[in-house]
Design goal:
276 residues, alpha/beta, Glycerol-3-phosphate (1)-acyltransferase, two-stranded antiparallel sheet, 9 strands, 40% helix
């Protein structure tokens, strides 16, 4: 079954650039994004929906999970579970699986492209990462914030790349702090260890050198996902940060960067909240 059909997406797209792409380029893109392989995996697990799909994918990729600090997951899951974003797909899978394993349910704030995968739709709180979110998305997201459901989030909004000569997230969005305060949700900081391939980062560096805005390296994310098969994924969970900590001494933007720094400190073994 064709869950992902780039030819159809391009045909229905409003983008003139996409519609002008030669057929051989489209075929090349389809090969790069591993469309056939991804569709096969999704077809094989067509009956696995929501949390069941997460469990099946951990087994499908034969991932070994080493998760430190599970004791830091609070009994009340009405929190934001935030993390750095080194992989792009596998970290999302492992993060949601870990939270679902503890609480039985969750909502993941994610790119609306994931809505093309019916297996994931019950878990996704969709946002439009490449434009303005629709009123429908905004209202649905607000309902999620108001609920008691655990929420996972990658505040960078994009996969880690090379910044300041090392692989790391870009600056984190302040909305995480704004919503934590207004919705009275504590923040649970989580750190993923690991990187994508050198090719992924090299394409990103070259693209930025030539001021190309189109994120060409995103096409490699399915391939990066498949490379994680049979690998060990290491994760470290820090202590919850009460939303009351985010007072007026700093702007919401600055608090977001402080939480970002804290997540990387957790990866270095520094899990104290004294930095706040």
């Amino acid at each position: 079954m064709k869950y992902l059909d780039l030819e159809d997406v391009i045909e229905k797209s409003k983008s003139r650039l996409l519609k002008r792409l030669p057929k051989f380029i489209v075929k090349l893109i389809i090969k790069i994004v591993k469309q056939e392989e991804i569709n096969l995996i999704l077809t094989n697990h067509s009956s696995d929906i929501g949390v069941d799909f997460l469990n099946s994918m951990i087994k499908e990729f034969n991932l070994t999970l080493e998760i430190e600090g599970k004791e830091n997951l609070p009994e009340n899951g009405r929190c934001f579970f935030v993390s750095n974003h080194p992989f792009g797909i596998i970290d999302g899978l492992v993060l949601t699986h870990t939270i679902a394993e503890k609480y039985g349910t969750l909502k993941a704030i994610g790119n609306d492209a994931f809505m093309y995968i019916p297996h994931l739709r019950p878990l996704i709180a969709a946002v439009n990462s490449f434009g303005k979110s629709s009123k429908e998305y905004i209202n649905a997201l607000e309902d999620v914030f108001d609920s008691d459901t655990p929420i996972t989030h990658f505040p960078a909004g994009e996969v880690s790349r090379v910044y300041s000569w090392r692989v790391q997230d870009c600056k984190w969005q302040k909305s995480m702090i704004t919503k934590a305060i207004s919705k009275k949700r504590d923040i649970v900081p989580i750190h993923f260890y690991g990187k994508n391939s050198r090719l992924f980062y090299s394409i990103g560096i070259i693209r930025m050198m030539f001021w190309v805005k189109l994120n060409l390296e995103l096409m490699l994310l399915p391939s990066e996902m498949l490379k994680k098969q049979n690998q060990t994924i290491r994760v470290r969970i820090g202590k919850p940060i009460p939303y009351q900590k985010f007072d007026s001494t700093l702007s919401h933007w600055d608090w977001a960067q402080k939480v970002r720094k804290h997540v990387y400190n957790i990866g270095k073994g520094k899990d104290t909240n004294s930095v706040f």
